[in-house]
Amino acid sequence: MSEELFSQRTTTCGSLTKADDGARVILNGWVHRNRNHGSVHFINLRDRYGITQVVVDDDADEELEAAANSLKLEFCIAVTGVVRKRPAEMVNPEMKTGEIEVKAEKIEILSTCPALPFQIDDGLKTKEDLRLKYRYLDLRSQGMQKRLKLRHDFILSIRNYLSARDFLEIETPTMIKSTPEGARDFLVPSRHYPGKFYALPQSPQLYKQILMVGGMDKYFQIARCYRDEDARGDRQLEFTQLDLEMSFVKRDDVLSLMEGLFGHVFKEVMDYDLPATFRRLTYADAMNTYGSDKPDLRFGVEIKDVADLAAKSSFSTFKEIIGKGGFVKAVCAPHSETVDFSRKYITSLEDAAKVYGAHGLAWMKVGENKSLSGGVSKFFEGMEDEVIERMGAAEGDMILLVAHQDWKRCCTSLSAVRNKLGKDLNLIRKGFEFCWIIDFPLFEYNEEGGFWEAAHHMFSMPQQEYLDTLESDPGRVLGDLYDLVLNGYEVASGSIRIHDVELQKRIFRICNFDDETAEQRFGFLLNAFRYSPPPHGGIAPGIDRMVMIMAEETSIHEVIAFPKNTAAVSPMDDSPSEVDQKQLDELHLIVKYPEKP
Ligand code: ASP
Fold it and tell me: Worst-scoring range by mean pLDDT, 361-365, 447-451, 582-586?
């Protein structure tokens, strides 16, 4: 574009103050609001930096008046004019530029815009698919602009912190050998090699480990990861993580690096002070105390084991479950001014528990003088003091109990109750609460398949004391694994890795990969491990989720410029879409459509 074509801005819409009084300026931006008071026009001109009020006074010449009259919302324009202080009563303290306005001398329309499908800045009330179809309009909203800036600042701060500490940012390939890490791979057919495929990485896991064998010592990458999972909630098929790996480290080195990193980043980006170290909970403690391996620590309502009390009670259902080696646990809902512990409310808590396998939710209310009433209280007669003391309960509180044969179900059902209470009773503090979950089991039993699989991935180191019993008792093995949890979300997972070929093969075998299959799939890693690998470990915080939490949003769509919708479709460009027959032919592919039901 030649220079004369439009009047190019001399400043942005977010920068003028009363110190600029009298200055001649050119602004470029979009018409955010356009009000007409008689023959005076007030135009709010917007760009990424802010909004400036432009005034077309009643002394405007014909051309200016005509231009002002033709403006519609979101027209892209250039305004030439003079800055003037607003009269005292017109000052708008809400606006960065609220002390001034620009008296327009010339308005150029750079491009026009048809009627809008939705009001910009009204994004959250608009249906998501409409926002995604017109994402370019949605991106103009202040919310999206603020969040993408936050995301940028977050990533930049991470890059600077790590680079200053000897980390190298190294790219790893996005077309790799299919080495499933737990989810399904996305495949890319090879044109040159009919029947062969590349896979998109579920994460750079093996490559970062091989970088350690390659002596890179400290690596990170802002990496895109791809997992072909069923569309659910706000899960994305592609997401971004801070992928990181270090040589010659033990678990605590990785943990303290992360504490330093996020302490620095939260201060720099949000002026928020995090503690120097984060609370650490073992997996078992987290489950027993909060019912979850991603507990929200912004409120209490801890789970207590009441199996001994239930055994002494006269409640046969509980006694039976305990008799068969089951579990009885409880939480105490604190008295609330706003929520009535009615039957209806208790049923809603029970429904939450049932989603996680509870058969029911027993309850009793705490009354005056350490009394218990309602629900199962009659079975605890004579034990009121003990029950109330165990639960740390007070008058007006309600005790909620779950009994289950299965420890995990007992815990997770109560976690659902706890989380609902946290929200409904307004117990959740503002702010950011990180914690580490450590000492996870290394394996999980796959009930359907009837075999053991890695709880995290197959490259994590078992803790030393279990090395002799890996095969004989896989269920008991703890790994050198860690998760980072923030406000009830898992935001990172990592581990100290195996760097020994024989140990790696043992893990593969336990996870149902015989030596031949393991060589076929992971031979390149095993080969690398034959050439003096260093001990190493790492972690991978999810960028989308962390920025979502920092922005106090509940969907990662809000912090991704172009997300897919909940059906894994992009309404803007209509992907996924069909391709030409010629493209399929070149790739040697024939599409087999599912039969219509
Ligand atoms: N590759 C792992 C993941 O994406 C993270 C790690 O172990 O570093 O979950």
Answer: 447-451
Does domain 145-281+435-559 bear CATH number 3.30.930.10? yes
Distance from Cα 143 to the centre of ligand 1, integer Å: 31
CA of 494 to the centre of ligand 1 (A): 5
Where are the chain's structural domains? 3-111, 145-281+435-559, 300-428
Instruction: State the Cα angle at 166 between 162 and 168, rounded to 5°.
Output: 75
How far is ligand 1, taken at its centre, from the CA of residue 160, in Å? Answer: 22
Query: For position 19, what pLDDT does the model report?
Result: 97
Mean per-residue pLDDT, 341-361: 96
The rounded Å distance from CA 459 to ligand 1 centre is 10
H or E segment at 242?
strand 238-247
Looking at ligand 1, which atom is closest to the CA of residue 538? 8
Average pLDDT, the chain: 95
* Residues 407-441: tens digit of each pLDDT: 999 999 999 999 999 999 999 999 999 999 999 99
Residue of the CA atom closest to atom 8 of ligand 1: 539
The span from the first CA to the last CA of the chain, in angstroms, equals 55
Tell the residue nearest (CA) to atom 1 of ligand 1.
Answer: 205
Specify the CATH number of the domain 3-111. 2.40.50.140
Structure tokens at 497: 């890795």
Q: Once rounded to an integer, what is the mean pLDDT over residues 134-144? A: 95
- pTM for this structure? 0.94
Upstream peptide bond of 576 is cis (omega within 30 degrees of 0): yes
Length of the chain: 597
Protein residue closest via CA to atom 9 of ligand 1: 493
User: Cβ–Cβ contacts within 10 Å for residue 116, how many?
Assistant: 13
What residue ranges line ligand 1, CB within 6 angstroms? 203, 205, 493-495, 538-540
Is the domain spanning 300-428 CATH 3.30.365.10? The answer is no
For residue 158, report the distance from its CA to the centre of ligand 1, in Å: 18
pLDDT in tens, 145-159: 999 999 999 999 999
